[in-house]
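Deliverable D5.2: sample structural annotation.
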Amino acid sequence: MSLLQHTGSSTFYTELAELPLPVSADFVGGDVPRVTYTVRDLERNITRSLTKTFSGGISSYHQTTSHDSSEIKAFRTSPSKSRQAVLREVSNGTSTKRFVEIWAGVQIEASLDVTKYHDAFHTDDFTSSLSFSPSETSLLYTAEANIISDDNASDDPYPKFRYTPHFGELSRGKKRSTIFLFRWTRSTAFTKATKQDMLLVALSLAQPTQTPVLFGQATFATEDIIYASGHEHTKDGRLLGVKWCFNRPMGIWEIKLPESATVQGTPFGTKISCNALKLTPSERSCRSPRVLYDENQTPTKLFWFSNPIGGPHASCVSLESRDLTTGTNKVLVDTVMEPTSENDFPGLYPNYNMPSSPFLRHGDHTYIVLHSLWRSRATILFIDTESGAISDETKMRDGEPLYSWDLHATDDKTRFICSRSTPTTPHEVLLGYFDEHDNLNWKVLDKTMMSCATENALRDLTASIIPIGARPPTETIVIQSKKASTRPGSKPICVNIPHGGPHASTTTSFYPATAALALEGYTISLPNYTGSMGFGEKYIQKLLGNCGTMDVQDVVESVNELIRRGISEHGRQVVHGGSHGGFLAAHLIGQYPTLFNAAVMRNPVTSVGELTASDIPDWAYGEFGFQFTPDSLMTPATFQKMFEASPIAHVDNVRAPVLLLIGEDDLRAVPAQGLRFYHALKGRERRVEMLWFKGETHSIDGVEAARVSWEAGRDWFKNLGQNPAD
């Protein structure tokens, strides 16, 4: 009989997983906050989106909800808030049509069927563009260029099959990222623009580059100058995977459009040559260009994020700027190696991109507003655009909830939209604004609605951050039931969940799957070990070359610390991890075979030297102390060192039963990694099961797949978590 037996669905998981999650926001109609949410529908096995608009005033906002069409792939409000650009895909089951639309209020001002001029729109964080020109008569967007753009091309079959690298995990179909310029002439009669009054061209470089450069993240500065990020092929013909990676060869470019007269009447979809200049140095990975305008709408400064190329896949971010008058670059916020007692700021650890408009004006100052990791929390920072001075606007004070914050949008003036949550409190949406006394105030716009049963159950949970004193700056976020932890007898089983990365971080945000597991009666420990972001660059660099030892020992010490504090106990430990967290879980049950009763691993790295098929082959080299270059080869000596640092080296010691969750389409920790471990355990007659998710990628976050994964972990621990490993 299988060790994995389904015990049914969970009402807690179902309700929490289906809670609306705020993901983006903007201001429409001048000053009306609008928030977009994603919603998982477990019954239909789909993810939907909905939009809430909050009209009225600070004292009494009125909420209206609309359910967004799945046809809309992206939308953007214009700077004047009077127009909206929509990228739409309409499918009838056999074919897909694509449209670019410009709406002025409820009237469509311009619309063009772009289906035959390019392939899918790019709407990801890495290449997408959606930017109005200052006059609001032109729009930049990014799409996948056609393989053969000329219908009258020869019968040459090779272009269709010629190898072209893609952007990696979640971006297998993205190979030819191209910026398109859509321009229209407004009708004086307020009618929809005719085809003769519209222009669509693809932008290309007039000057060839040494290696191919693919552009995205384009934004207008003036009617004829745009700024964009350029993703560069490596010398060995790769596009290194970009998802969760801040160290890719890419830079900020200034691109000058040709004069309007020279492109007027150009056939739709034609490539036009543009003069371009790379503004950033070759040793820095630069992205997310944002233009600051003065009160006269003159562009004055350009800002972007920057990280070193190579090394750890994520690290402390620098915020850099360029004076558009003098052409001089400046580091506004530099890398912080280690916080000090005088200044505990650990450095910038924001999302991959800044918000589309990150600026806030207060008095004589203009700020960039970001949310950034600060140890195990995410907080809201104001950064002065002149001095780089930083203020923590949501600093946690004694006795306050463990809120982690997300910034979604500013109105480019004095207001901004955020969301916040704790490990036991779902997200709520807030408006930040300055009152007449220049004090920062908060207005709650939206709170999550739940059933009374779930609300009461969550009240029984408590969350805390526990420092691991023996291995600073390691700390762990602990979630536990007040009732279960104070009952006589054995402590609840403790589920240890180290995060992936390794250069990521678990924050005090609300995670439905984690909260649902805690509501099953488990204590949850979420350790941020050496290498986690939010603690200073020193601790990211410290892990390089020490993966499999230092991070493993940090997690073990977090287990010991909770036992010393009476939060958990020996013989009641299990481990659950994905990606690098799965790497750690596999190491933990191999190096410490009697410490954990059971393990669950999602797409784990188990044999580092065999990871060369990953979309990030450089990861194995950088994290394990080797230099990666375009001519790097896996030599026997290198493989031996990587093998010794891998969980597979300890497979003979494994005693805990193992459940593997594998995404068939994972390009990051390729499925062969999990298969390797499964067969190694099977061959040694160990207890092991594996679930194989067709069509799922590294995160296994499809609606059904995520639910089944959660239920499998719960059932695995329910059946095996109480029995010490043999």
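Annotation notes: The first strand starts at residue 21 and ends at 28. DSSP finds 13 helices and 36 strands in the chain.
The annotation will be released with the project's public dataset once the embargo ends.
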